[in-house]
Protein 1
Amino acid sequence: MKIEQLPTPSYVIDQKALKQNLQILKSVADRTGCKVLLAQKAFSMFATYPLISSYLSGTTASGLYEAKLGREEFGGEVHIFAPAFKDSEIDEILAISDHIVFNSGRQLEKHLDKCLRAGVSIGLRINPQHSTQGDHALYDPCAEGSRFGVTKDQFNPDWLEYLDGLHFHTLCEQNSDDLASTLAVVEEQFGEYFHQLKWVNFGGGHHVTREDYDIDLLVASIEHVQKIYGVQVYIEPGEAIALNAGYLVTEVLDIVENGIETLVLDASATCHMPDVLEMPYRPPLQNGFEAGEKAYTYRLSSNTCLTGDVIGDYSFEKPVAIGDKLYFEDMAIYSFVKNNTFNGMPLPSLALMDETGDCQLIKTFGYEDFKGRLS
């Protein structure tokens, strides 16, 4: 079927765009010898893992469930980081993980003996206290009071006897100039320890597949660390892997008039695209423009009872009618991984679009998926 024939709401993953992103990331790995991992927290549609795994070295997980998914469906290396690990889960985590990264010295020391017996590669997250996020404190792991990573003052060189690597993750949707400035601070604070390590993980937030991204600077940064310190470099982007590689298809259910014409959709910001409210984020819309730019402006909202469940104001060249389909773009990342069923809203179906434009429904959801989360 074609995209316009899919039930709504549906997420559609564009495999052609996904493949183009993967080719860019693979070129970075080929040029530098670094290893690129899929950060599953941003994108975990495992129907695409056979394709992604042919380009990347493995996955990174934020907890037990993502680690299991990476091991079962992706293969390759499985890396895991969490602010803290539960005693009831640590044995299973160590059984399926290749790298484990601790967030604090206390966590490292607590689980050290089990890690050594399991033979996993042990890492520690560091915090260079170098913010590059501007006003977006919500996404700044280096903000004052951040719970993420060990600062220079907290670092104990005695840990190096057990550590294979250090991990820093300070970026969010950023270019390589921010990586370069961060790396300079990391080297100043922790570089003396790098010679005793096997690997350094640059974390995620690298928008490598964005059109204006400076790939040469990324390559130079990776090559610098590998040459100077003799370590393996990892990067673990999530967004860059599926950036601009997906759609959310929705239908107009009604039009409400109260000062502005509001389109009531069967997709929801709070349920299906929460970054719209959290970041905030304005998703691109196919054939949609800024409010007032074209002749017909509408407010796009949802079918929930939350007054603020508004996606944004968009204008169109032609009037929109009840029953029309709208296609939000860049909806592969941080979308279905954050879904919820508030108000009993149905979860969108999942579909794949091949390189000819043909779509295949991969999974649909119903009442039992809603009920199964309750008691």
Note: Residues 176-194 form the longest helix (19 residues).
Protein 2
Amino acid sequence: MRQIRRHPARTRRRLRTRSLALLTALAVLLSATAACQGGGRPDDGPVDPYDPAAIRYGLAPQPHPDVTYQPDVVLVGGGGDAVRSVTGDGLTWRIDPEADRADELAPGKVMFLTSRAVGRVVDVHREGGDLAVTMGPVELTEVVRDGEFRTDAPVPLDRPIAYSAGTPSWMVADLPPGTGSRGGIGGGAPLGRSRLLRVGAPAPRPPAPPARLSGTETAKAGDLQLTTECCRDGVTARFDYDDSEIRMHGSVTLVMQRPTATFDLAISGGTVTRAEFSITGGAGLRVSVKAGTKVGNSRNLSKSVVVPTQFSIPVGTILGIPFSATVDQSLEIKTAFSAKDGRLDAAGEYSLSGAFGYGYRRPYWGPVSPGGFAVRNSLTNSITGISLGASGLLVTYDAKFTVGIGALGFTAGLFVGLRASVGASLGSGAGLIVCRGAGLGVTMRYGISYSIPKVVADIVNFFLRTFKTRPIKQRGELGDETVVVKRSETVPPDVPLCVV
């Protein structure tokens, strides 16, 4: 007590010194703890991924000491609050010209504004009080040079945000004669030309409809009505078509039970050295189709449909990068009626259990396919119809899961997709033997980078040609596919007339 009274200034200095040392030690401890916990796990950032601005335009990236971006990447500040609007195709973003580093944007640079607003700049100019930035898609390694990212726990795919492109010109394309069932997302067959390419002029590009927190979305293109659902009980595409001559409606569902996603990704020197991606909760495939015609073989339906809706679930901000799990879908619908006033109905359900995904250790792939295939309800036994001639239909459904960054079909990251082709045929009712035949094929595709339908790539390249930029690729280089199921049967069996 006597020392305090005799030397108050010295004592206060000693207390301040001890307090400063304590605070410094605490800051070092917290920093070390954060570093130990920051090895690729989602950061506990203050931004809610379901904040209105984040829902509509995505979360903002942040610099991080454990991530090296490519030298031409521009992290534009402001996140979703800096976005004024975006076109439905996701290519042109109108942003605040006063946003941090927006003045550095130029053709050839990579803009990274949000988890959805990321791409290679092909044009940038002032438009009123906005800065209009048009971008092409990029691969993940064109954004990140070095970094390791992973989830420590499975991410539930149970709270999706529905993004719609409206009714884009690439939504529906006519399939050329003889096209097989490989024209879905990432397929290798040509998809024909859409209306935009036939008339030779760009279609209007209106702003994207507002995003919303929803597991259901609808879309309409001409006589085609689509309803899509995701993701708690699986992924579904319902379709209805009626042009007064041909009618067709049905649904395809990749049945799932509370699906989750996990991933582990390492990039070094701009090259992916390790990648693991898994979707759990697979349960089966369910299909139901009804088709009819008044005109027979004088006209049949043959359409490729890129569903203009993407369901997105925020994964979290990992080392400053806001990852999302997204689901994209596409359909091919074909009828083969040889006589008018025909009808063909079919329905079936099959089980496919377990996880699906892959592991990659450069340069080796290790696919993990769903198993447990079993017939719950035979498609062949369900086929019914009326026709004086043979009838047939083919529906190919593609559901693609991606973890990465980007918007709509241009999401770059780790992807795995299941493509199911279901065919049904019915012999002529005028014959002695009425044959029924069905075929089912399921293929799993997997890889790294983006993968888009050819018709979308054609349309985008047609549009980007205005800016004299190099064309985009339909898919990235890393990836493969494997057959999961291939099955066909006829009733009655072993009758030559019934072979499909």
Note: The radius of gyration is 27 Å.
Protein 3
Amino acid sequence: MKSYQVLVRGSGCVGRALALALGAQGLRVALLGSEQPTAAQREDVRTYALNAASVALLRELKVWDSLPPDARTPVHDMAVAGDEAGSLLEFSAWQQGVAELAFIVDAAELEQQLAVALRFAPHVHRVDAPVPAELVALCEGRDSQARAELGVRFEPLARGQRAIAARLVADQAHRGIARQWFRAPDVLALLPFDRPQPQHAYGLVWSLPEQRANDLLALDDAAFEAELNEASGGAAGRLSLASGRASWPLSLARAEPLLGPGWVLLGDAAHTVHPLAGQGLNLGLADVAALAEVLRRREAWRPLGDERLLRRYQRERQAATWAMGELTDGLLRLFASEAAPLRSLRNQGLSLLNALPPLKRWLTGRALGV
């Protein structure tokens, strides 16, 4: 039996990225998880909004430049509207002094290119069962069985909402503009994309109360499109479905503890946030970058699974993941309320923030990961 230094459990984007990052350091890595995509993964309609820090990590791992051009679409501008006329918050890459605010990336294509890169990683080996290792990194997602077996508390705080995702085609060009509507009680996001039609496609993420989401999912395509076009008000042109619809429940959760002797949690196994800010995978890839750097800078005599070493990773990531979780949950509760005073306050807040360029630049910088 081969001797491994790190066992990575989970072969989603976070697990694969971690295996590549640690393998690049010369560590002997075992990756536990299927290489072959399931039927659901092959038909994945999700898109990821990746910030500058995530792109930098993927470029370092030799994955970013292997993505097909139509699988990564730059976002140059973002328009966030409230539920009252005139309430609008706008962000611009030009004002921020960057080439783009984010990239919208095909979820399935990113996983595939990570898998391809792993085939050329000599220090990473696929295993089909757990193997002994100095450090076990759990990247199995929000339903991690190994996390439960360790006795880690992970109690999702449900908000009674559900997300709907799909691919759309519009009769107007998207021009690199991401559009989002914060309303009571839903959050609608249209993410500019180039699949299946360059300059005319979007990734849809629509967060709604559970019953309303189920009602929409039960509609045929034509009726769903009618509801969607009414909700978007024609701002992106006439929208048509270009895929099936996917759906999942939304919740906020943080694992406690995050680590122990010889093990550590990353990605959705460690924390989940609402998709309204598009930061879920960004948080997971930031976990990867932080843990890889902690292990790279460890003292030569210190074991990889040393709990004091792993606490350096926790100190690096705990505040950022807590803040993003609280921010997204707070925004959700604020915009889900239909109370008239709160409605007026939140809409005024969007317009006020739009008039404060320094604060806008600061917020954009946090989202960009720079």
Note: The mean pLDDT is 86.
Protein 4
Amino acid sequence: MSAKPLQVDFPRLKSDVEALAAIGRADDQGIYRMAFSEGDMQARNWLRERIVQAGLELHQDGAANLFGRLAWDPDKPSVMVGSHIDTVPGAGHLDGALGVLCGLEALRSMKEQGISLKRPLELVAFSDEEGRFSGMFGSQALCGDISPQWIHAARDLSGVGLTEAMAAQGLDANEALSAARSPESLHAFVELHIEQGPVLDELGSSIGVVEGICGLKRWDVRLTGVANHAGTTPMLMRSDAFQGLAEFSVEIGRILEEHGGPQSVATIGRVELQPGAANVVPGEARFALEFRDLEESVLYDLSDAFRRTLSAIARRRGLMFDFKVVSELAPVSCDQRIRQLIESTAQAFAYNHHQLPSGAAHDTQQLARITRTGMIFVPSKDGRSHSAAEWTSWNDIQAGANVLLNTLYELANEESP
């Protein structure tokens, strides 16, 4: 690190955060910039203008990922920084957007200060990180993880296809196949993001040094019993699917304690009972089981324990049990060298910092397939996110931006690892 750490122009960054937050904001104070919606396109146009005003080279690839480039040289591997500016419906103003704006400010600051760089820097705003059309379209496309079949099949919850939505904005979804980057074209990728959880806020830490991103498994589970009259069927003669579910839910804590790790979590987030009448013993219980951890081996152990427990409960209660794997994401570890740079920069500024995993998925999880990655977290007040109540203090935002700026500087000037 340079003798005196670099600092961003914070009033300018604050102005950018406030300007982007106004785009797509509705009367309920939530932000509506779903991928390829009018709000999303308006935000993209605003970002284009800011990239050009900063004197960066503007580029858009086939997946509509938007780039700002500094000291661009296609023959040199670049250091990439960014996140996304699309949102879930009724979102807060920082999720994804803060990472893009802090990345923009970092590149803009280095350009204005005439800082010499050994390798190029790239800002990226990825398309559809929030999964309107399933997955993380922009970063998956950049990593070469989509196919013509994937593009054709991608639809939102209303049945609108990705191809249709992009065409309405003058874009060709099939061009996303040309967005793939080779591992040789990237030196590293860094993403700044709000934590979206309560840990840093509770600890009073301004900076989170992300160890890795938890993998997840999501199952659609079904317990099948016998629907029967709730008044005439004795308790000992029932095959009650809900009672099987209730027993399993109580077992989750034990399973995590015996087979999980310190970061393991499991959630039953959706339940459907059939036939769903107050006076009928439930004959079927379907529910979504999701579990996450930072270690692939732990996820395997949890899978085995959940399956065996469900099977035993079903057998004891006279139920049938089956499940379908709906989604799987492998955990990824952040690069040790980048983690050290983030931590040393936080120490240079005397920012309180803490190492922690990310329980949520991010574009970094995709980029880790092709390059070294690192993540910087800033606190989320009360752990709130994906809502209008999302908030991070300006002091913590400034701290995150300064750490990001210096981390990028070091990566852009380090010797090849």
Note: The chain has twelve helices and 15 strands.
